[in-house]
Structures are given as C-alpha cells and as structure tokens.
Automatic annotation (TrEMBL):
The keyword Cytoplasm does not apply. GO terms for molecular function: hydrolase activity. Residues 33-287 form the AB hydrolase-1 domain. The keyword Hydrolase applies. Keywords: Hydrolase. InterPro entries: AB_hydrolase_1 (IPR000073), AB_hydrolase_fold (IPR029058), Epox_hydrolase-like (IPR000639). It comes from Lichenifustis flavocetrariae. It comes from the Bacteria. Pfam families: Abhydrolase_1. This is Alpha/beta hydrolase.
Length: 300
C-alpha cells in the first residue's frame, strides 16, 4: 500500500470508526459538504480527475466504501453486511463525525445505489443527489427477468457463497480488468490512469474484499431489491433534487426504457438528467464533461 501514488495531493487523509470498522476517506476544500461515493470494482480513487475542481467550491469527502480500498471489510453472509441501507448508515456516520449533518451526494455505480437508498431512508439528510450511470436496483432485476442480458455479472456475483469467490480468486486481476475494459467505451484499460489502476489492483486479490464485493451483489439480489419494492409500494420518493448522469455507451444502451424515465416513474419524479459521451466510468473516461455536469447541477 505504501507504494501507491497519492492521487489527492493537498487533501487530508482520515480514518473514521463506524459499526463496520474504520472507513478511510480523503477530504479537501472548505465550503458546503459534498460526498463522492465510488462503485464496483474500484475505490475512492475514481474521482481524482474531477475532485480538485470540486474542492474549490465544496468540502469534498471521498471515502472508500466498506469492503473496498483501505476501509474495513466486515464479515457477512447472505448480503446482510453489505445492504445499501447499512452502507448508507456508514456514510451518515462518517459525515456526522466530520461535522456535516446535511450534505450533497454524488455516487457512481454501487455508490449511487447507496446514495438513493440513503435519500429514501433518511429524508432531509441530502441537499442534492447526483446519480452516475445507474437505474434503480429493482429495475435492473426486472429487466433481467424479462430476458434482457444487460448485467450478467449481477447474477454471477449474487450466487451463493463460496461459488463466485472461488472462481474470481483463481484469476482476480484478469476478472476485474475484463470488467473495466468491457464497460469502457474504448474497450481498453488505457482510459484509466495507471496510478489509479494500481489502487484498484491492490485489493483485487484479497479474499476478504472479493467476498465483500460478492456480498454487495447478494444484497442487491435480496435485501436491496426488497427495500426498493417496499418503497415503491408505499409511493416513497426522494425529497431532494436529483440528477442523472448517464453514459452514452453503457447505461443508455441497456434496456428498452430510457434511464431517466425509470427514475421519473419510480423514486425521483422530478429528476433531471444529462448524457455523457463515455463508457461506464464517466469521471475517468470523460472528466471534463462529467465535472462540468456535476458543477452545473450542484450550483442550482
């Protein structure tokens, strides 16, 4: 770990104790708080190309989620320790420890799933919510059950323990690198900063983190989907302004329904959105457009 490059010069490093164990976070800037949450199979390093500009206007907090990066990877079975409700509570605890009772939230991939679950579970907590390249969990599973094959890794990673853990552990670097490559617009690892790739690779061979990522997806297949369906039945919606940043070559090409339409008919009836010319990794593949879109939304 000591040999990994510091992608956030000028940012403070902090460990904060939570029920999950210690969460690692980078913190930079001084103004209104903004939390940036990464997705699978990465770490907080994903934001390094846009965080410095955001830190000119916000106090930017960039955690590694539980089970990822330098944060604790607690034991779990059946997804119980990696529900988005539990992971959202981690981030509430982190932000409260840093002195932020309310904050803006931008999340990519799994981090975005934590963001919308946190918004539904903790009304009034978020001032704004930016979702990078997702539709709700219930909608992903509904699409797959309707015969769409948009996210085959969801089924694989959610298989019972220890099946996927053992398969990934045979060649972890190859497995995760293939995901990054295939989900990028260029179908190449060249879109990533080699220093960021080193951060991601540092944890990919760790059995506890392989297990954590599988538990993350098991939660998606079970408890997270159930939480979505319960909120749909109760007609609950997100109470803060919500903005979707959808990639042109990943999310926007998956499913028969426009991603923004899914949000508007479910949890965010007034959601706005923009399409970014990118594969799935918006903040790394097209940091200029992604940063500008976030700045414009957060300024509103």
């Amino acid at each position: 770990m000591e040999d990994l490059a510091d992608l956030y010069p000028g940012f403070a490093s902090r460990y904060v104790a939570t029920k999950a164990g210690r969460l690692f976070a980078r913190i930079g800037g001084r103004r209104a708080p903004l939390l940036l949450a990464h997705g699978f199979p990465q770490t907080g390093a994903i934001w390094h190309r846009i965080a410095p500009a955001l830190a000119e206007r916000f106090t930017v907090v960039i955690p590694d989620l539980r089970g990822y990066g330098w944060s604790a990877a607690p034991e779990s079975q059946g997804g119980a320790g990696y529900t988005k409700r539990v992971m959202g509570s981690d981030l509430v605890a982190l932000m409260e420890e840093l002195g932020h009772a309310r904050f803006a939230f931008a999340g990519h991939d799994r981090g975005a799933r934590i963001g919308y679950r946190l918004a539904l579970d903790h009304p009034g907590r978020l001032t704004q919510l930016a979702l990078l390249d997702i539709i709700p969990t219930f909608a992903v599973w509904a699409a797959m059950e309707a015969g769409e094959d948009a996210a085959p890794h969801w089924r694989f990673l959610a298989e019972p323990e220890p099946g996927p853990e053992r398969k990934i552990a045979e060649h972890p670097q190859a497995y995760y690198e293939d995901l990054l490559r295939n989900w990028s617009k260029a179908k190449s690892l060249d879109v990533f900063d080699p220093r960021a790739l080193a951060h991601y690779r540092a944890g990919w061979g760790d059995p506890s983190r392989i297990h954590a990522s599988c538990e993350d997806y098991r939660a998606g297949a079970g408890q997270d989907r159930q939480a979505d369906e319960a909120d749909l039945a109760a007609a609950r919606t997100i109470d803060c302004s919500t903005h979707l940043l959808a990639s042109s070559d990943y999310l926007s090409k998956h499913g028969r329904e426009e991603p923004l339409a899914v949000w508007r008919r479910s949890f965010a009836p007034e959601a706005t959105g923009v399409t970014i010319d990118s594969g799935h990794f918006l903040a790394e593949e097209n940091p200029e457009a992604t940063g500008a879109a976030l700045q414009a939304f957060l300024a509103g």
